[in-house]
Amino acid sequence: MARYADDLSLAHLLADTADSMSMARFRALDLRVEAKPDLTPVSDADTAVEKALRATLARTRPRDGVLGEEFGASVAAAGPGNRQWVIDPIDGTKNFIRGVPVWATLIALMEGDQPVVGLVSAPALGRRWWAAIGHGAYAGRHTAAATAIQVSGVRRLADASFCYSSLTSWEESGRLPAMLDIMRSVWRSRAYGDFYGYMLVAEGAVDAMVEPELSLWDLAALIPIVTEAGGTFTDLTGRAGPAGGSAVASNGKLHSDLLHRLS
């Protein structure tokens, strides 16, 4: 923990800034929304939050690179290094622009290709989750009200609560039949979506969450939280880490069965 204590404190500071800015624009009547080249929406809150977090990082971590969803990658002022902050200013923008409170700012620190610090802040839900490698995973409204979290002990898919992204994305990936087979096999299935399903896995409220296509800023902050809570996080091929562009997160006990069914 001592190795990443300052970085985790900075992540909380960044999240405080993001929360203040995003909540001021949530459900605002003059919220501006545009379509990006990939036709996904972006609001003025997305861009403003990322700019503010980048400005803070430029001052406080000049030797660290930054990758953000809205403005891409930037090399550290001091030159290329091994550390990079990864930011999704508002994960769940479609929820945000419709007034649904399930959205969050995702902040991660990577060393090489490994996420070592992750923080997810969902101010409209009054909840925040965070972890650092070797430190454990925690949740609460803020650090003073934190509780350690851990994944569930469910061992069979027949007893599992299963979470997923939209079925359309699974159809596009050619894995819809496998998904439907899993959904018929589990105790309960729900599409909580975006960051939230992964945080519920980390808390032990659900037992698995899967998505077929994700970017690094969607993934990086989630991995330390799930794994430090005792879970397993891989791509669809079973490879650990965020490089695969897909996600299978579970309590660990269900992981091999899920990978087998989705392969």
Describe, in plain words, how this protein is organized in 3D:
This protein has helices at 5-25, 44-60, 93-98, 167-172, 176-185, 194-203, 216-219, 222-228, 255-262, and strands at 33-35, 41-43, 65-68, 72-74, 83-91, 104-111, 114-122, 127-132, 136-140, 147-148, 161-164, 188-190, 208-211, 232-234, 247-250. It is an alpha+beta fold and 263 residues long. The strands form 3 sheets. Strands 4-3-5-6-7-8-9-10 form an 8-stranded mixed beta sheet, with helices on both faces. The chain has a 5-stranded mixed beta sheet with strand order 12-11-13-15-14, sandwiched between helices. Strands 1-2 form a two-stranded antiparallel ribbon. The model has no long low-confidence stretch (mean pLDDT 93).
Average pLDDT, rounded to a whole number, is 93
Order of helices and strands: HEEHEEEHEEEEEEHHEHEHHEEH
Radius of gyration: 18 Å
- Total helices: the number is 9
Q: What's the β-strand tally?
A: 15
In helices, the fraction of residues equals 25-40%
Sequence stretches where pLDDT stays below 50 over 5 or more residues: none
Identify the quaternary structure here. Answer: single chain
Instruction: Give the CA-based shape.
Output: globular
- Beta-strand portion reads 25-35%
CATH topology of the largest domain: Fructose-1,6-Bisphosphatase, Chain A, domain 1
